[in-house]
Amino acid sequence: MRFSDEAWQRTKALRAAIDHLPFNRELAAGTLSPERFRFYILQDAIYLGQYSRVLSLASAKAPDAASLQAFGQSALGAIAVEQRLHAHYLAEFGVEPAAIAGAEPTPDCLAYTSFLLATAHQDPWPVLVAALLPCFWIYWEVAQAIVRKAAPRNRYQAWIDTYADPAFGEAVRRVIDIADSAATADLRDPMLTAFIRSTQYEYLFWEGAYSQRAWPKFD
Question: Over the stretch 3-25, which tens digit does the pLDDT of each residue have?
Fold first, then answer.
């Protein structure tokens, strides 16, 4: 069994839970509150800044030219598309660039990015690839599910179109192929652990955005 097949199978229940999160169900229906989406898109912009750094580290550590190019161009090209999406919605919701720079990551955002950065610095390259894969693959699959049931004239259509775009799907498939090629017998278990952990963080990121989970304050 390929690594990607086993990773996908091992996260079946978790991915089903992601599909059924109120955030994703309401986004598909176009009924997600602007406040919740604004919270999400601001945190996603913070996440993206760190994620792009991890992608750069993955590119630098790649063992061959093809993998270097995949992460250096295809992956970062997808990031550029996301940045345009963020700019669109942040402007729509009146979020100034200065507010993004001064915004604090939530516990979920900080935990996820810290995990990815730690993996990039401390673990073998194949484990890093496995940790990066869910952010690509799960967004693609969630968008495909949403496309099939999205309400017409959905105010979040730009988000749906970005992640359902076939070009994004091609980037996803390239990273899946790299992960499968990188999987070795001695690293398969830690790769699976990293894939599952990132999938859990994907769940927490969306669930936390819906509940607008922030740091506890006692003043």
Answer: 999 999 999 999 999 999 999 99
